[in-house]
Amino acid sequence: MSLPSLNALRVFEAAARRLSFKDAAKELFISPAAVSHQIRALEKQLNVQLFERLNRALKLTPQGNTYFKKVKIGMHTLQEATTELLASQRQKVFNVSCIPFLTNALLIPNIQSFKNQYPNQNVQIFSQTKLAALTLGEADVAIRHQKGDEKGLHYEWLSKVHITPLCSEAYWESIPQNQQANMSMHKMINMSVDTYSWPHWLKQFAYESSPKKTITLDNYQAVIESVKQGLGLAMGFKPVINTSLSHEKIITPFGDQVCDYGDLYLVYTLENAQNPEIIAFKRWLKALISQLESDK
Which end of the chain has the least Cβ crowding within 10 Å, N or C? Predict the structure, then answer.
């Protein structure tokens, strides 16, 4: 004997659970007559009476009750399996918190290569200066410039950061050669959230003066575009800007006047250290930084 159809079993399960053809019909968005027809067809196929039809009530027969218990388990298993399958097919959002200049200079230009390697991974990047609360689930990982000591977090070292000014070839050639080392002759392109790198570099190499004219922008991508247009000197962060130095007419005119500016870290919770998405992102990011360092 062939098995009953899934639709017939679905109708039977609803009617047996509710002990009402009318209520089962409402649940399944069909007519009570359709429910009654399906149940009679199922009873005929099984050659078993499943319900006792009383004047104002519906009651399962002993055979119907035994069958209902088994069918209910089967229907639940099918529902659970379908839900799990659909959930596994959805793209999980992987949230990355990153300081603004790295978002624009490192992640945005290169994130497509990560998506090409992991096409089922949907990435969302939060560009922010405040520290994301990783232990509260605000992000899966964070890229930070300084190492903290928060409980429950792991700081994975990525790279040393070094700084030196950069500019376009055209801008540098527009300054008289005997004045190129005079910082007061230069225009400075600055990023609004970065108030430390220029003073740090000028002090490191004992410059007595600083650029007098300043253009302040709110993101590093705009800073780099202004450099390309020859608007002035901007602070370059190595290894992030190495690709620009390789492929654009951008130079670091002060040669070996490069100073340390801390380290980059990938941060995530110890609890999620073995998360496959985090492992994949870490592998990709380390390979990217390694490639940038080889471009210098």
Answer: N
6-89 domain in CATH 3.20.20.30?
no
| pLDDT greater than 70 at residue 291 | yes
What is the pLDDT, as a whole number, of residue 122?
84
Whether the upstream peptide bond of residue 239 has omega within 30° of 0, thus cis, is yes
User: In DSSP terms, which residues pair with 96 in a beta bridge?
Assistant: 125, 141
Within 8 A by CB and 6+ apart from 296, the residues are 238, 239, 242, 245
Rounded distance, CA 3 to CA 92, Å?
A: 38
Pick the closest to residue 145 from 134, 133, 129, 125 (CA basis).
129
List of E strands, the chain: 51-53, 58-60, 92-98, 121-127, 141-144, 153-168, 187-191, 213-217, 233-238, 250-251, 259-269
- Is residue 221 within 8 Å of 106, Cβ to Cβ? no
pLDDT single digits (tens) 122-157: 888 988 777 888 888 888 999 988 888 888 999 999
The domain spans of the chain are 6-89, 91-296
